[in-house]
Design goal:
alpha+beta, 13-stranded mixed sheet, 7 helices, globular
């Protein structure tokens, strides 16, 4: 039976208990994030013998998170009326647990895969560059380019309000010519480093080195702050992979396969 979560503290304590028991999971949120999901009535659950599913509701789909006891395989999911997305982060050298076959038996199909890459600041030859941060007046244009450039299910796109806050925090870099937007790079802080969240270039400006220039601008903007630079890139995007490798990024061994179950 599908149940809405209403007690945030009880939910968080359950998460702690399940993790301490060593149950397999793809749920790795902070307490603050978990309480937010409950407080905003975005999360529901289905319990079954040996496990539980948690569903976080987005506008047009659901994200699936699970806990499974040792030896337990996924069970059939309820019908929600929207696509369901399952994403896991794991080491490339290890077999996916539970296996991809187990998820396919209950209706999931492979959707895409990303890998994480990193570059230590000490290995960067920094250039003297003049960087340009986005202004609030560019919010609509950047937001539209973001919507046009990324698939909707696993790109972790910010809302317009969240993007505005990041523009105000100077976490969005832009490339312009004759006051026309050519591209942007959206980044954020992580422990002792900086994470590239989204980068996109206008269709008419692709192939001109705009993306590479924005990454170098990111290095410049964070050179006195970040000890490392991180990003996720789709494994089916050779031009992006080649650009990051050219700039010195290396895979750190983590991959994120994403599966989808449509209605």
């Amino acid at each position: 039976m599908i149940k809405k979560m209403i007690d945030g503290q009880a939910f968080w304590q359950e998460i702690i208990n399940r993790i301490s028991k060593g149950e397999r999971t793809n749920f790795f949120f902070s307490e603050e994030e978990a309480l937010f999901f409950v407080g905003n009535k975005k999360i529901s659950r289905v319990d079954f013998t040996g496990g539980v599913y948690f569903f976080i509701e987005e506008e047009s789909f659901y994200r699936l998170y699970y806990f499974l006891e040792k030896g337990k395989i996924p069970e059939v999911l309820p019908e929600y009326g929207k696509p369901m997305i399952l994403e896991e982060v794991l080491l490339a050298a290890k077999e996916r647990v539970p296996s991809e076959d187990s998820w396919q038996r209950i209706g999931f199909k492979p959707y895409l895969q990303r890998k994480r890459m990193y570059l230590a600041s000490k290995n960067i030859t920094f250039e003297e560059r003049k960087v340009t941060f986005a202004s609030e007046e560019m919010l609509e244009e950047i937001f539209q380019l973001m919507q046009d450039s990324f698939e909707p299910y696993s790109s972790a796109l910010p809302t317009k309000e969240e993007l505005l806050l990041d523009i105000q925090k100077q976490n969005v870099l832009i490339s312009c010519k004759d006051q026309k937007l050519l591209g942007f790079l959206h980044f954020g802080d992580i422990k002792q480093g900086s994470m590239l969240w989204h980068i996109a270039v206008m269709p008419q400006a692709r192939g001109l080195g705009i993306g590479e220039g924005l990454v170098k601008d990111w290095f410049t903007a964070q050179r006195d702050i970040a000890k490392k630079f991180l990003l996720w890139v789709r494994t089916d995007n050779p031009p992006a992979l080649q650009m990051y490798e050219k700039l010195g990024f290396l895979p750190d061994g983590r991959v994120a396969p994403v599966m989808i179950k449509t209605t």
